[in-house]
Amino acid sequence: MARRFFCKKRISKKKILITAGPTYEAIDPVRFIGNYSTGKMGFAIAEEAAQCGAEVILIAGPVQLKTVHPNITRIDVKSAHEMYETAIKHFPTCDGAILSAAVADFTPVTKYNIKIKEKQSLTIELKPNPDIAQELGKIKQKNQILAGFALETNDEFAHAQGKLERKNFDFIVLNSLADKGAGFGYDTNKVTIIKRNGETIPFGLKPKKEVAADIITAMKNCFAKK
Ligand code: CTP
Asked: Quick one: which of 1, 40, 95, 157 has the fewest CB in 10 Å?
């Protein structure tokens, strides 16, 4: 109860944009390029932010999850391009954003509108997708907070630090696939929050709901310092 009250005081009346889940990049009407993201982490963050009194815009890739809290406005998208268009449209009206989506970095150059029939071999040419985080980082205003994730398998800190600066994040949530019980599909996660001033906060393995609360606390602290 005390935590809820403290939490409400700091993030209520804020409007927070959250991206979650994978993106699907169509090859033809029945096939796509995707990834293993389930959206659980992003949806937990959306619920936590809403419970803390924030108004939430949740931009969700294709996932099998339901939203519960009435303060969450959910916008379902499929491709990285749709997610980009939606995020760019809504970010200027928000106080902050937490980008947890596992966005496909590439998309097929050609999207066939009829099913590709069996072939001996098939080469699919790919082109880069927009980097949603980097584009939001460019238009971020002084009073806005931008946070993202880094899911890494090696040289975790160096990669996360690079992304923090390149994408103009206020903080980044580092997820290492080297940690058991962390990453896609699990109900638990183990993260380290790295702030722009170099401060690093490691957390233990815990349910994604509790990780979401740690991330919202980090955002709340950033708002307090703006
Ligand atoms: N991100 C994004 N748009 C993209 C790619 C990534 O918004 N096209 C965001 C993710 O939601 C995450 C952060 O950027 O918050 C880092 O994503 P990640 O996939 O780890 O980084 P990339 O820049 O794609 O780098 P790489 O795949 O080379 O590790």
From this structure: 1
Kindly state the average pLDDT of the residues 59-63. 98
pLDDT digits (tens, 9 = 90+) for 162-184: 999 999 999 999 987 777 877 77
User: Residue 202: which domain range?
Assistant: 2-106+126-224
Please say if 35 is a catalytic residue.
Answer: yes
**Ligand 1 proximity of 219 Cβ (cutoff 6 Å):** no
Which residue's alpha carbon is at the smallest distance from atom 24 of ligand 1?
Answer: 105
- pLDDT of 179 reads 78
Residue 113 near residue 39, CB atoms below 8 Å: no
Assign residue 157 the CATH number of its domain: 3.40.50.10300
Q: Could you tell me the pTM of the whole model?
A: 0.94
Q: What is the pLDDT of residue 11?
A: 82
Cα-to-centroid distance, 39 and ligand 1 (Å):
15
- Tell me the average pLDDT across 103-108: 97
In a domain, 96, yes or no: yes
